[in-house]
Design goal:
about 70% helix; single chain
């Protein structure tokens, strides 16, 4: 329904971004050109008056100003509904002008002119030529206009997804207000044609308000038509009628026949649905009068259909027959044009494909000729070239083998290492520990396991945040690494729990290491985090002499000692020495090491 109206909407803003191109003529002429650009869509009457003044004094203009005036004259003919006269003028401008921006503007205008004449094959061909210049156009606003032309003509030929894509490309590139207004109009109409309009009406109101601020009344009212159709489809007929009738004086003041005809045809449909046949007839007749020259207009078909239904309701068989005949002719013409548009798209698409294939074929043939010539001239270098290619191939294979190996090592490290602390994760610690235990069991060597858990770590996280808690875990891991040999296995079992498997170390030696580690943790200075607090841990130690070479049993006994240390006041080392006695018994088989340096540490903290 809106495809023809889109042409008018885009013609209104086409080229508005680029004001006089490098003009060096009189100040008066330059000023009037700017006024013409400004009044083109906001005040058509003033635009025509200014254009007459400029044409009367054309001899005083510079060459760029004359080209600009020639473009405005062609634009005026398109706007007045005489696109067939505008096309030769615009083509002459393209041929004569050395300015890429002006060539681009004129090309876009020709596309619109062809669209108005329903010469879609020619329009699409011109669009291809015009868009080929887009990367050389200096004005970003003018590039947006080119994309707007593409959106328009693809909307006309029923390629609404492509139209939506072009409109979104404009909106995503920060267009100016006028271009932004048109792009929103095209996008909303494409969404309506694709039946995916947003349910929220805010986007419509924002677009209408912005267009009105820019005095782009035509674009604003095309968006209102889209909104009215949305409301009508949702059963809100009265709101749709009220919206259009309240704005009818403003719409008629634009003098855009296609806009006025479309609004009145829609009002005729809605009034008939409402049951007001008299009002429907008035609007339908007005729409027919405005669109009689366009036999393939959907607006004309809609208005004639309304007249047919009115005559049927009145029981006027003769009038119904005449109206139906007009409706059938207009509808058939419209459907034929839709097919012609689709055919035009397919024709041009096929031409572009063939052209692309021809270019590709010529490129390949040219490459073959060049290669043949080189082979004929440098046959002696063939062997050297092959050797170089082989060297490059081998180098490439070696390079990718190296890269793959690096990736494998990186993935292996990621799989084996705790990301936060850099020590073994639980899975890798288990694999390493079981391998070491099996080796020690075969060799008859003693193995010890140290297991420790940070005291009150949850309070650190809760009170100072998880970022501080992560800092503590990394500091603890770094401190423990200094006590581990290369053959020892240090791992983070989860949360704030760590374990060290010491190869060839007896229980007493492991207990001393645990005590040294405990003291070192207590010396961690936390002021770097912005907070002052103590870092302590409770340790459990066991060895293979008492727990055997089973990792599960070693972990179990060390874990019991760890929780024994927790129960006995935390910040201490408990050593497993056999069967574990209950915590409430007087006797204990746990060796608890004294708190060395505790008093000194407490004085430092205070």
């Amino acid at each position: 329904m809106f495809v023809r109206s889109l042409v008018i909407g885009l013609v209104i803003v086409l080229g508005a971004a680029l004001l006089p191109l490098e003009a060096k003529g009189s100040d008066w002429f330059e000023k009037r050109l700017r006024q013409a650009e400004s009044a083109r869509s906001s005040d058509p009457k003033a635009f025509q008056e200014i254009l007459g003044q400029l044409n009367a004094r054309e001899e005083k203009a510079s060459l760029p100003q004359k080209e600009h005036l020639q473009y405005l004259n062609a634009y005026a003919r398109v706007f007045q509904g005489r696109p067939e006269q505008a096309i030769p003028e615009a083509r002459q401008l393209i041929a004569a002008s050395a300015n890429i921006d002006m060539k681009f503007r004129a090309g876009a205008l020709i596309v619109n002119a062809h669209a108005l004449n329903r010469q879609f094959v020619e329009g699409l061909r011109q669009l291809e030529e015009t868009l080929a210049l887009i990367n050389r156009v200096q004005s970003s606003e003018l590039r947006h206009q080119g994309l707007g032309v593409a959106a328009l003509i693809h909307s006309q030929i029923g390629q609404h997804k492509l139209a939506l894509n072009y409109a979104e490309r404009i909106l995503g590139d920060r267009p100016s207000g006028r271009t932004f207004c048109l792009a929103r109009q095209v996008k909303l109409q494409a969404l309506q044609n694709l039946a995916i309009l947003p349910g929220d009406e805010t986007v419509f109101n924002e677009a209408i308000d912005q267009c009105l601020q820019l005095r782009e009344y035509a674009a604003a009212n095309f968006i209102r038509i889209t909104l009215a159709r949305k409301w009508a489809a949702e059963g809100q007929r009265e709101m749709a009628i009220s919206l259009l009738e309240r704005r009818l004086p403003e719409i008629e003041a634009t003098r855009y026949q296609h806009l006025i005809g479309e609004v009145k045809a829609l009002l005729a449909e809605l009034m008939l649905e409402k049951g007001d046949a008299a009002a429907a007839e008035k609007y339908a007749l007005d729409a027919i009068a405005l669109n009689t020259s366009i036999h393939s207009s959907l607006t004309l078909a809609s208005a004639n259909k309304t007249m047919y239904e009115i005559a049927q309701r009145r029981g006027d068989a003769q009038a119904a027959l005449l109206a139906y005949k007009s409706y059938a002719e207009a509808d058939k013409a419209y459907l034929n044009e839709v097919k012609a548009r689709e055919m035009a798209y397919q024709i041009v698409r096929q031409e572009m494909l063939q052209k692309s294939q021809q270019i590709s074929l010529l490129d390949k043939q040219n490459q073959v000729l060049q290669l043949q010539s080189k082979l004929d001239q440098k046959s002696a270098q063939n062997t050297r070239l092959i050797v170089m290619l082989l060297v490059m191939l081998v180098a490439s294979i070696g390079y990718w083998a190296y890269k793959i190996k690096r990736v494998q090592l990186s993935l292996k490290q990621m799989a084996e290492t705790d990301a936060l602390t850099g020590v073994c994760n639980r899975h890798h610690f288990t694999l390493q520990a079981e391998r070491a235990l099996a080796q020690c069991a075969r060799a008859g060597e003693e193995v010890s396991l140290i297991m420790f858990d940070l005291d009150h770590f949850k309070l650190v996280n809760d009170r100072y945040g998880h970022q501080t808690g992560d800092w503590v875990l990394k500091e603890v891991a770094d401190a423990c690494k200094s006590f581990c040999r290369r053959i020892d296995v240090l791992g983070r079992l989860g949360g704030e729990e760590f374990a060290i498997l010491m190869y060839g170390c007896d229980l007493r030696g492991a207990t001393r290491v645990a005590e040294d580690c405990r003291v070192r943790l207590a010396q961690i200075d936390t002021r770097e985090t912005g907070h002052t607090f103590a870092v302590t841990a409770s340790f459990g130690v066991t060895s293979s002499v008492l727990s055997g070479y089973s990792l599960a049993k070693l972990l179990s006994h060390a874990d019991k000692m760890l929780y024994r240390a927790k129960h006995m006041g935390r910040n201490r080392v408990c050593m497993f020495e056999g069967a574990v006695a209950p915590l409430h018994d007087g006797a204990s088989n746990v060796l608890e090491l004294p708190h060395r340096h505790e008093e000194r540490l407490e004085s430092l903290r205070s």
